[in-house]
Structure formats: structure tokens, C-alpha cells
Design brief:
This is RNA helicase. It comes from Trametes coccinea (strain BRFM310) (Pycnoporus coccineus). One of its GO terms (molecular function) is hydrolase activity. 33% of the residues lie in helices and 11% in strands. With 689 residues, it is of the alpha/beta class. Among the domains are: 244 residues, Rossmann fold; 159 residues, P-loop containing nucleotide triphosphate hydrolases (Rossmann fold), CATH 3.40.50.300. Helix 7 crosses helix 8 and helix 11 packs parallel to helix 14. It is globular, with a radius of gyration of 25 Å. The protein starts with 30 loop residues before the first strand and ends with a helix. The chain binds adenosine-5'-triphosphate. The site of adenosine-5'-triphosphate has 22 residues, from helix 7.
């Protein structure tokens, strides 16, 4: 085992600035300026971020990666000794370019109307900001989220993992890491911690396998959390397979289903599950394990799938391949090769584990409450297609979303189902109040010990999630990066003032400037731009306007038809694709033409923008977890962010993994709402790394 002691990458306890003078980012939480509470609104908010991750249980641990010296994802680091060789190259390209600074400099240029959501709290912020002195020179606002996430109480931690080496990684996985990231890639701080705490270099003994653990991986967007959990999990699955570790389903009394995965990854959107499954597949080119994405079948209709096609699919799916058409070939494949890792949304996983239509009674009740006539339709509950008895790992990606009020019941239901299938049922309350407000007054619940390893991961830790963890998982080990709750350091911010005329025309104007600047400095391919709106209708209208003006774009909302195809083709040309052959496989005609056209040396004019989408307009649907391509260099936030957690995730789709990027926040500079906008601008500024 190579134990490197380079201080540059040492991971040890972080000491953050002791004083936390903060404006809380969510509009429903108080605003603090220089230790003085200046805005009201004390009602708890589910997007309020946690201050202190220190575990309450005696056995819980908090480990914070020490920021590298120089830190990863910064110019200095890449210039001097390289976070990776690819990153050094990107840096030099960026230095050559030297874009003019476009952000406004005087306080009059501050955006005035990043509209706060309506409601009492928004009014509170307004009222209080009115009484606050306008001169901001004395009111320094530091990272608003650090108030809620105090890392200064971290335990000391020194990581040996300053490089990816074999061991502790098995050769095949190490080779894949180098194939994916390049030969000089080094672990990011959160990966270093994950290698130290989650990864086992040797097969676990039966006693070790029976000791289940729980971890939280918390680090900023684009910092490599997916690889941080995938490497230890995949390695553990492979080592267990090689050592012939028994499965529960070997016992004939335990029901076997078509699929009996050993690890589950839950994520909030189908797009993210597909991308995560694809990434896991990339890491398995040299270590054969079977990954299945439980997303919808990649064909228009299941009826059109013939037995011959099914057989063909089975034959053509080599080990380690992602099988996005899992619904079609699930049964025959499962009879031949077991599934190792299954990735899916909570509702899809429940459907597989409980049978299609399992929740029909509940839906019937809901439908009849709403007076839906179809409520008397006949629904047959299908056979469960997945057994949960073999599940040894559960990863909850974007854990703050999957434990929010919309998802938490389904998420906890899955965890309870797995526990029951593994012979250790845990208590399950459908209605669980995770809000931290009255946590102290409620009786302390009994901690839950799940009979599997549990990993939660997110770039933002709201206080509701922290309260849930403290109450139910007090011994969970918290692994955090010192940049948590900050924007990536390579992401610039700009505030664009509405002119007061047509806002769509303002957006068009700013878009054209992006490409003009690209052309000026000879950048190929031209930048892609991700535009976030708050509402679907706004996204669609903006898309139509830009098309009229000759800017091809994709407007993608929750109900877009393109999403129904069950693949990520609707994101082609925007998501990161590493291997050219995969680009060719997955891209539809327009997207591949786009990549080629944009990359061609002679492609200089803006003409191509008419035919090839360089703009994707969406809502928060695509703000979570998706790894966008490095040429998505701009994120436009054209509606006020609902809260700064949402802002952090939207902005974080660019500037990933040390790439440069820019987030442009649109707002009014004059008239009503200017004070609110000034506060928002301060908050955005305070999120900078
Ligand atoms: N050690 C590394 N060095 C360089 N690039 C890396 C490293 N680890 C991961 N990456 C790349 O960084 C990108 C972002 O990784 P990933 O999507 O896992 O980030 P994340 O932390 O999960 O972000 P988010 O919070 O937005 O979900 C990916 O393209 C990944 O391949």
C-alpha cells in the first residue's frame, strides 16, 4: 500500500474563520449582518442549511478534509503541480483568453429585482432591508451558508490518500480511474476521505460484513462525490464476489426475484440515474460487474419488444454494461447474470420491489378525492421484479432532496423494505416530521440501525436533513469538504441588469455576447449555455422567442415529450461524454452534427447557432447532480433564485471539476425590488469560494 505523506494533499482538520457574520440565504430565515440580526422570519425552512454536523452520538464522527495547499480546483494548484494534467491545459487556454470583466462595478449596477418569493418572509426581508443603512461598505457579508454549517468543530483527520494507487484500489478500478480522469488525476478532498473511510483493500471478513456503517459525504458541486462513493462500493462488491461471500438469496427459504442487486443507488431524477449508471459502467471497463439503470425502457413501447429482440439484447449486453433497457430484458438477463448495482429513482425502485401498481389503493383514494372518474379502473398489481435480500449498500445521492417532504416517505419506505427483506425489520412511520423546529420538544426517537451500509451524499445539508441524521443515525460518520456550501472556485459570477425593455431580448443579447467573445478569442467549440427559469411556461416561451430570433435551443421541462423516451438523448450535446465512440453512439443526428460543426476549424460564424442547439432552457429539474459538459461554460439565472440552495445547485452545473465557468444572474437595477436584489447580490457574492 502506498502511503504518501505529501503535505499538499494532506487531509486533516480544517479551521474555518471563527466569526460567522452571515446573511441567511433562504428568504424565510433571518438575515445576519455583522453579528446583528437585521431581518425577521424565524419560521423554520426546509432549505435552511445546518450549522453544525457534529454528531450527537458518542460513536458518530465528523471528518473534514483539509483544503489542499494550494487547494484543488484553483488556478494556482493547476499551474504549479497539476490537479490533473487536463486541468493544467484548460488553465492555460483560459489564461490565453483573458475575457473582459463584464460584471458591474458600481453599487448602482447592482441588480434590484431578483424577486424574493411572495409571502410574509419576503416582506420581512423587504421591511428590514429598508431600515438597514444602504451603505454596504461596513456590512461585510461572508458565506451565508457557513453560518449553518460550522466545520470548526471537526475532528482531526489525516488522509493517506493523496493519490489513486493500487492498492488500496484494485488494479482494474485504478486503470479505469486513469482512463476516465487521466494518468495524473488525484483524489479530490472528498474522495480522499472516502478512500480512507469507506474503501476496503481486502475482502471483508464475515464479522466485518455484518458490521454495517453509515456515512455522509458532503462537498461542493462538481467535486467528484459520485466517484467518491462508487469506487469503494464497486470494489467491495467485486471483492465479495471474488472471495465467494455468501448471498442471502443462496438460502432457498429467502425469495429470489428476477433481480437481486447487492447495491442500490437512489437519485431524484431519471436523467441523473442514467448518468450515474453510465459513470459506474465507465469505472467497470476492467472490473466486470453488472450495472442496471431502472429507468424507463429505451424503446417507445414494451409491446414492440419481441422475444428475438430480448434475446439479442441479452447477448449484446457485455458484463459491466449499463442496461437502460432493463425493463425489457430484466427477466431473461437476471436468469443468466445477477445484477450487482441498480440505480433508480425511489418510485421506480419501489415499483420494482413491490410490483407495478403496488400503490393503486392509495392512488385510487387520491383520485376519488379529486373526483377523478377513472378512479374505478381495474388495476392489477404486478409481481415484484426485484428482491432486496442481497442489498448490502444503499447510496442516497442528493440526500437533501430524497429526504425532503416530497420524497422522504418513499425513501424511508425503501430502506425499511430492504431491512425487512434482510430479516431485520426496522420501525417505519409514514408521517415523520423531519422539521428541526420542535425537534428538542419531541421525545428522542430510537436510532435506526439498518442491516446494510448506508451512504448519504449532497452538496447542501439543510437543517432538516441534519436533524434527521442526528435523531435517527447519531453514529453516522460525516465526511465533509472545506468548500462545502460555496460556489466552485473556478466559477465566476456576473450580475446582468435588465434594460427595462423586453427581457427576452436582453437574454438574447447576452447570449450573443457569449459567442461573440468566444469568436474573438478563437474558442472552439462555441460555449453552450444553460438557462434556468422558475416556471415551465417561462422556459417554453423563452425557447420559442429565441428560435424566432435564429437561436436553436432545447426547452426542457418536467412534462417535455422528449423526456418520455426513457433515455438521456434529450440532453445530447450538453451532458459530459468522455469517449468519442460513446458520443457517436448516444448523440442524435443534430447533436453529433453540432459537436462536429462546432469543433471544425473552419466553423467560425454564428450561422451554426441556427441549426445546432447551443442553449438549453430548463427549470430546477436539471439543477441536481447532472454532470454537464465542459463546454457548458455559462449558466444564466434569469428568474430570481427561489433560495440560495437552489442557486448553488443551478450555478454548480458549470465550473465543474476545475473547469472554468460563469454564472450570470439577471436582475433589475432600478425601481421596485432593488433593495431585495442588493441583498441577493450580497448573498451570491458571499458564496464565492
Ligand atoms: N479526482 C478528480 N480529478 C478530476 N476530475 C474529477 C475527479 N473526480 C471526479 N472528477 C470529475 O468531476 C466531474 C464532477 O463529478 P461529480 O458529478 O461526481 O460531482 P459531484 O460532486 O457529484 O457534483 P454535484 O454535487 O453537482 O452532483 C465529473 O466529470 C468527474 O469525472
Amino acid at each position: 500500500m502506498s502511503l504518501l505523506s505529501s503535505s499538499r494533499c494532506a487531509v486533516r482538520s480544517a479551521t474555518l474563520p471563527p466569526e460567522l457574520l452571515v446573511a441567511c440565504l433562504h428568504t424565510s430565515t433571518p438575515v445576519y449582518v455583522r453579528g446583528q440580526r437585521t431581518a425577521g422570519g424565524s419560521a423554520p425552512s426546509r432549505t435552511r442549511l445546518v450549522k453544525d454536523l457534529t454528531p450527537t452520538g458518542a460513536s458518530g464522527k465528523l471528518k473534514v478534509a483539509r483544503q489542499r495547499d494550494p487547494p484543488p480546483h484553483t488556478e494556482k494548484d493547476r499551474r504549479n503541480d497539476g490537479y490533473s494534467s487536463k486541468m493544467s491545459q484548460r488553465l492555460s487556454r483560459r489564461e490565453e483568453a483573458k475575457l473582459p470583466v463584464t460584471a458591474p462595478t458600481s453599487s448602482r449596477d447592482l441588480p434590484q429585482a431578483l424577486r424574493l418569493s411572495s409571502g410574509p418572509h419576503a416582506r420581512d426581508v423587504m421591511r428590514n432591508s429598508e431600515v438597514r443603512p444602504r451603505d454596504t461598505s461596513k456590512t461585510k457579508v461572508v458565506n451565508p451558508l457557513s453560518e449553518d454549517f460550522d466545520l470548526s468543530k471537526s475532528a482531526k483527520s489525516s488522509s493517506r490518500y493523496t493519490e489513486f494507487t493500487s492498492p488500496p484500489l484494485m488494479d482494474g478500478l485504478l486503470k479505469s480511474v486513469h482512463d476516465v480522469l487521466g494518468p495524473d488525476a488525484e483524489p479530490t478532498p472528498i474522495q480522499a476521505l472516502a478512500l480512507e473511510h469507506l474503501l476496503k483493500a481486502e475482502p471483508r471478513t464475515p464479522e466485518e460484513r455484518a458490521r454495517y456503517q453509515q456515512w455522509l459525504l458532503a462537498s461542493e458541486t462538481g467535486s467528484g462525490k459520485s466517484m467518491a462513493y462508487l469506487l469503494p462500493v464497486l470494489q467491495d462488491l467485486k471483492l465479495a464476489e471474488l472471495s465467494g461471500a455468501p448471498r442471502r438469496t443462496d438460502d432457498p427459504s429467502v425469495p429470489r426475484r428476477a433481480m437481486n442487486p447487492r447495491a442500490l443507488v437512489l437519485a431524484p431524477t431519471h436523467e441523473l440515474t442514467r448518468q450515474l449508471a453510465g459513470f459506474a459502467k465507465e469505472l467497470l471497463h476492467n472490473v466486470k460487474l453488472r450495472v442496471v439503470c431502472a429507468s424507463r425502457a429505451n424503446t417507445p413501447s414494451r409491446k414492440k419488444v419481441t422475444a428475438a429482440k430480448m434475446a439479442e439484447a441479452v447477448m449484446d449486453t457485455p458484463d459491466g454494461d449499463v442496461d437502460v433497457s432493463s425493463e425489457i430484458i430484466m427477466r431473461p438477463v437476471a436468469q443468466q447474470r445477477p445484477v450487482d448495482l441498480l440505480v433508480g429513482t425511489p418510485s421506480k425502485i419501489l415499483e420494482l420491489a413491490r410490483g407495478r401498481g403496488w400503490d393503486y389503493e392509495q392512488r385510487e383514494a387520491e383520485d376519488s378525492q379529486e373526483g377523478d372518474r377513472r378512479s374505478h379502473r381495474k388495476i392489477t398489481v404486478g409481481e415484484p421484479e426485484m428482491g432486496l435480500a442481497d442489498v448490502e449498500w444503499v447510496i442516497i445521492d442528493e440526500a437533501d432532496v430524497l429526504f425532503d417532504p416530497d420524497f422522504q416517505e418513499a425513501t424511508r419506505m425503501i430502506l425499511a423494505d430492504i431491512s425487512a427483506a434482510r430479516g431485520h425489520p426496522v420501525p417505519f412511520e409514514p408521517e415523520l416530521n423531519l422539521a428541526p423546529a420542535d425537534a428538542k420538544s419531541r421525545p428522542q426517537p430510537t436510532p435506526i440501525e439498518y442491516p446494510f451500509n448506508l451512504v448519504l451524499t449532497s452538496a447542501t445539508i439543510p437543517s432538516s436533513l441534519a436533524a434527521y441524521i442526528s435523531q435517527f443515525h447519531p453514529s453516522l460518520t460525516r465526511l465533509a469538504s472545506p468548500h462545502l456550501h460555496r460556489l466552485p472556485s473556478t466559477l465566476k459570477t456576473e450580475h446582468f441588469n435588465w434594460t427595462g425593455g423586453n427581457r427576452d431580448a436582453d437574454i438574447e443579447h447576452r447570449l450573443r455576447r457569449v459567442w461573440y467573445e468566444d469568436l474573438q478569442r478563437g474558442q472552439r467549440p462555441l460555449s453552450k449555455v444553460l438557462v434556468f427559469c422558475n416556471k415551465s411556461a417561462r422556459a417554453e416561451n423563452l425557447g420559442a422567442y429565441l428560435r424566432e430570433k435564429g437561436i436553436a435551443n432545447v426547452a426542457l421541462t418536467r412534462s417535455s415529450d422528449a423526456r418520455k423516451r426513457g433515455s438521456n438523448h434529450h440532453l445530447d450535446g450538453f451532458l459530459r461524454v468522455r469517449h468519442p465512440e460513446e458520443k457517436g453512439e448516444s448523440a442524435d443526428a443534430s447533436a453529433s452534427t453540432s459537436a462536429e460543426a462546432a469543433a471544425a476549424p473552419g466553423a467560425t460564424s454564428m450561422e451554426q447557432l441556427k441549426d445546432v442547439p447551443h442553449v438549453m432552457i430548463t427549470t430546477s429539474l436539471l439543477s441536481r447532480g447532472l454532470d454537464f459538459a465542459p463546454d457548458v461554460k455559462h449558466v444564466f439565472i434569469v428568474d430570481e433564485p427561489r433560495n440560495m440552495v437552489d442557486f448553488l445547485h443551478r450555478a454548480g452545473r458549470s465550473g465543474r471539476a476545475g473547469e472554468d465557468g460563469k454564472v450570470v444572474v439577471f436582475g433589475k437595477s432600478k425601481g421596485r425590488g432593488s433593495e431585495k436584489a442588493r441583498v441577493v447580490r450580497q448573498k451570491v457574492g458571499a458564496l464565492k469560494a
